[in-house]
From TrEMBL:
SMART domains: Flavin_Reduct
DNA-binding as UniProt keyword: no
Matching SUPFAM superfamilies: FMN-binding split barrel (SSF50475)
Domain of life: Bacteria
Pfam annotation, one family: Flavin_Reduct
Record bears the keyword Ribonucleoprotein: no
Domain Flavin reductase like residues, every copy: 17-166
Protein name listed in UniProt: Flavin reductase family protein
Signal peptide: none
Length: 175
């Protein structure tokens, strides 16, 4: 029997969203002020394609995070799509490893614009921060994609119902 109980709307919403499978990314940002040297990366699944012309995406980041602080100050950010075998990277960038030691997990390089990107992931999308919309606990950041790098990995890491998963193609759609 489908649940339509609205007395615990937040709880039901959380359960529903937990069951929605999402592709795992790590978003990186760095402090714009030279010499401060602050950089950070954080695991995020609230990432969506927004527009093709101009190419743009949006990400939703909790206002309480360090990444949020850096994204508000900096000119841009990089969305790194994780490959199916990179659950360790996701775990590191969502708290299992301290912020200072995170970039030792995975093949992280530094681009000319100073942003870190994951060279052995699926793809890295460098974005210019073009709009921010605070909403509730989070802020929506709109990023215009200024550079897109595809790496060797072809399948993304997914997250569903608090577990990491791989995507598996369905051979044929039943008639
Ligand atoms: C699979 C997964 C997806 C996540 N997606 C998001 C997200 O889209 N936005 C967000 O603000 N936090 C997200 N988080 C939570 C942050 O990664 C986590 O809170 C992180 O540790 C932030 O704190 P820190 O970087 O200061 O340690 C996600 C966590 C996991 C494990």
């Amino acid at each position: 029997m489908p649940s339509s109980d609205t007395s615990d709307l937040t709880g039901v919403f959380r359960t529903v969203m937990r069951r929605v499978a999402s592709t795992v990314t790590v978003i990186t940002a760095a402090d714009a002020k030279e010499g401060l040297g602050r950089e950070h990366g954080m695991t995020a699944t609230a990432v969506s394609s927004l527009s093709m012309d101009p190419p743009a995406l949006l990400v939703c980041v909790n206002q309480r995070t360090l990444l949020h602080d850096l994204m508000l100050r900096g000119p841009g950010f990089c969305v790194n799509v994780l490959a199916h075998d990179q659950s360790r990277v996701s775990a590191a960038f969502s708290g299992s490893v301290s912020p200072e030691a995170r970039f030792a997990v995975g093949d992280w390089r530094t681009a000319e614009n100073g942003l870190r990107f994951l060279a052995d992931g699926m793809a890295s999308l460098f974005c210019r921060n073009t709009a921010t919309v605070p909403y509730g606990t989070h802020t929506i950041f709109v990023g215009e994609v200024v550079e897109a790098r595809q790496h060797d990995a072809e399948r993304p890491l997914l997250y569903q119902d608090t577990r990491y998963c791989r995507c598996e193609p369905i051979d044929a759609v039943p008639a």
